[in-house]
Design goal:
The complex is a heterodimer of chains A (45) and B (707). With 45 residues, chain A is mainly α. Chain A has helices at residues 9-19, 25-44; one strand at residues 23-24. The radius of gyration of chain B is 49 Å and the shape is elongated. Classes of the chains: A mainly alpha (45), B alpha+beta (707).
Chain lengths: 45, 707
């Protein structure tokens, strides 16, 4: 069950922290979708 | 004290009672529920010497008596023999360590847990001494809540009282058949000193590897080892006891049935919750995550941005915070102390105008944009100031300006914010004609708009925030932002003005203020002005078409007398002659009352007053009837307050006292309601003012601001 905005938020936070600077919501959304897609792909594998 | 009763024959009861008394005496200082242990050997030694009987005899009697009272005496077989356990309160009951309602449990496993999903840890929001916040493992409970619980060993009690450490799996008939069989040697009393092999009796064992750590045989001198095949019985591995010892060889014991390892090795199985690749969002938005990210972004980007922003804002742990469109980990936000805030506030007050964040950082913190932490610090500054009540964000996207308490108001205080909000509410109601000459697309594309200046705008330096201005001015950057400060430059005069944008809120309209000096200095009502975007998001230019010198008697507001009057003015700008309130054309304008702003927000009262002053008296003195064209009505109306043509048309259509003049197309008629007492003071009584007391406000004479 994936909850948009809750699932894998820790990974998004990790990415944001590693960047070292604020990110635009557009970039944040793109990265978050990547994380979610990756998690789905891994699970299906 | 607990009264115990004994079972068995009379002799067994007596013996059991004596043993119980011995053991409780021995443990008289023990806790009531503490176990009191004693071996059979010790008891035999004591009682054999006491009663002068053989050890074997007394041992068997003791054992029989205590077995008859097994509710009181717990029998345990240990390596060195048999052990009996009892307690002062009777049968020994192991103390329960179950902690069902502890603070620790309630802390870690609350009734209403926060929504956590897909994380294996819960991160503490407390700031540690070190700069990095490491995840703090709290409890597996959260993993269970998140559906990410690992497959933990499950304790399953079986008949033998053992716990399995192997993951539970469904047991099928095949599993049972294939499971290692447990062979139990059944003891039989041995009558002769022959070597006797206990016949193995196959017993189907549960699938658990219960023989992984076989217990040692304690009852007999040597453990009985049996094989799974009876043919192996003659193996001389069994020692028997002499027949004189009627004691059972051993209690049923479990021994290794086969030489193979009997531990059932099962591969750990991780059961993942079924993952649905389709996420369903509010408004019925369903997105399949198997699609490519660019594809999803292209289709749902704007909606997802908003949803994600909302979700991040609603995160109870506030792990990711935002300022405008920028997002940053809360743990990375640099803290600003009171001294920092005071320093920033003092600096803004010293500069006497709102300052951009970059300027504050450069002048107070000497941070260079080339430094790696510059953007993080900039975000932190904006984020912290945004949460302080002494600071107000008045910037736009690309120019983040901060204002603070104590700065002089931009545009003075001649008009109160609450009053202007109500006066311009007609724009929020939809009576807006500002896009008739220029479309919003054209304004946005060209970055410039033209408009004619009305008397009210010229007098107070205010521009209503209509659709044309909305197409030009940046939108608020923050959701609750109520104003922004822009810089208007006049390239014709090399002057700069701070203009405050008051954004519309709810049913209140918005406006721009701060151009009073420019308007009064260089323009007249009816002038055509052009507002264009500048090089920065908060910079604009204001210009007008220059024209030859013109002198005329134009309407002005005599502030001392609080009356309208005509005065000689010389101007150098191009005007729309029809919109210039000159004495030659609109001589009656000086008879308008300078109504208080509180009265001006009442559209119908202002309209009636305009009719009475500016209209042609077509009736009698006792039965007045005023006619006025819509054009003159609009110009006059905009002397007292801003208003659009559609607003006036709506008032004229819906007002009971107004009607189109059938004799003079394009004109409207106003028939005032009959006045009580039939007073003949009429329209000429303006000088008396009556109950309409004009406001006296000029350049902040009144310090109160209702906002």
């Amino acid at each position: 069950m994936i909850t948009f905005g809750e699932t894998s938020l820790d990974k998004l936070l990790q990415w944001l922290r590693s960047g070292g600077e604020p990110k635009d919501i557009k970039d944040v959304l793109q990265q978050y979708l990547l994380i979610l897609s990756k998690s789905v792909t891994e699970d299906s594998e | 004290m607990t009264v115990v009763s004994f079972q068995g024959s009379a002799s067994e009861q007596g013996l059991a009672e004596e043993v119980y008394r011995l053991m409780t005496t021995q443990g008289s200082f023990f806790a009531l529920d503490a176990p009191i242990k004693q071996t059979l050997a010790n008891l035999t030694d004591f009682l054999a010497s006491k009663y002068q009987r053989s050890h074997a005899d007394i041992a068997s009697q003791i054992d029989a008596a205590l077995r008859a009272n097994d509710t009181l005496f717990q029998r345990q077989e240990i390596e060195s023999g048999v052990l009996y356990v009892t307690s002062r309160q009777g049968a020994y009951v192991p103390r329960s360590d179950a902690d069902t309602h502890s603070f620790r449990q309630r802390l870690h496993e609350p009734d209403h847990p926060l929504p956590i999903d897909d994380i294996s840890v819960v991160v503490s929001t407390s700031r540690p001494a070190i700069t990095t916040v490491e995840p703090v493992f709290v409890s597996d409970y959260w993993q269970v809540q998140a559906g990410m619980a690992p497959v933990n060993p499950v304790s399953v009690s079986i008949d033998f009282g053992h716990a399995s450490t192997v993951p539970t799996m469904p047991v099928s008939a095949g599993d049972v058949a294939a499971a290692p069989k447990l062979v139990v040697a059944v003891p039989e009393p041995v009558a002769a000193p022959e070597r006797v092999v206990a016949p193995p009796e196959p017993v189907v064992a549960p699938p658990e590897p219960v023989v992984a750590a076989p217990e040692r045989v304690v009852a007999t001198p040597e453990p009985v080892v049996a094989t799974s095949k009876p043919t192996a019985a003659p193996k001389p591995t069994v020692e028997t006891k002499p027949a004189t010892a009627p004691e059972p060889v051993a209690a049923p014991e479990r021994v290794a049935a086969t030489p193979e390892p009997v531990v059932v090795v099962q591969k750990p199985v991780t059961i993942r919750p079924d993952r649905n690749t389709v996420i369903t969002l509010p408004e019925g938005l369903a997105i399949d995550l198997r699609r490519s990210v660019p594809e999803i972004l292209a289709e749902y980007g704007a909606q997802l941005e908003k949803i994600l922003a909302d979700r991040l804002d609603q995160d109870p742990l506030r792990r990711i915070v935002s300022f405008g469109r920028s997002y940053y980990p809360e743990a990375s936000v640099i803290n600003l102390g009171k001294n920092d805030l005071r320093k920033i506030r003092d600096y803004i007050l010293e500069r006497n105008e709102p300052l951009p964040d970059t300027e504050i950082i450069a002048d107070l913190y000497y941070h260079n944009p080339r430094q790696s932490d510059y953007e993080g610090f900039r975000f932190s500054l904006n984020y912290r100031l945004c949460r302080e009540k002494d600071f107000e964000f008045v910037g736009v996207e690309g120019a983040r300006l901060w204002s603070t308490k104590g700065l002089p108001p931009i545009g003075g205080k001649r008009v109160k914010a609450a009053e202007m909000g109500q006066i311009t509410s007609y724009l929020a109601e939809g009576y807006d004609n500002s896009l008739e000459l220029q479309s919003a697309e054209a304004i946005t594309k060209s970055g410039a708009l033209n408009r004619l200046l009305t008397f009210f705008e010229w007098e107070y330096g205010v521009l209503p925030f209509d659709a044309s201005i909305a197409a030009l001015i940046p939108t608020p950057m923050l959701p609750d932002q109520r104003s922004a400060v822009l810089r208007f430059e006049s390239p014709q005069h090399y002057t700069t003005y701070l203009v405050e944008v008051r954004y519309p809120t709810g049913n209140r309209g918005g406006w721009l203020q701060g151009l009073e000096e420019f308007f009064r200095e260089h323009l007249v009502p009816g002038a055509l002005i052009t507002i264009s975007r500048g090089s920065e998001p908060n910079q604009f230019t204001i210009s007008y078409e220059e024209a030859a010198e013109t002198s005329d008697r134009l309407l002005t507001l005599d502030e001392k007398k609080n009356k309208f009057a005509f005065a000689n003015l010389t101007y150098y700008c191009a005007v729309d002659v029809d919109q210039v309130p000159s004495q030659s054309r609109f001589g009656r304008l000086k008879n308008l009352k300078s109504l208080p702003m509180g009265e001006r927000r009442k559209s119908e009262i202002v309209l009636e007053h305009i009719f009475e002053v500016m209209g042609e008296q077509a009736g009698t003195r006792s039965d007045p009837r005023y006619t006025l064209s819509l054009g003159d009505l609009l110009l006059s109306y905009n002397v007292l307050r801003p208003g659009s043509r559609s607003l006036l048309e709506s008032l004229l259509v819906n007002g009971e006292s107004f009607s189109p003049d059938e004799q003079n197309p394009g004109k409207y008629v106003f028939i005032p309601a009959p006045r009580e007492g039939g007073s003949e003071e009429g329209a000429e009584g303006e000088e008396g003012d009556g109950d309409l007391q004009p406001a006296r406000r000029r350049f902040g004479r009144y310090a109160d601001d209702d906002e």
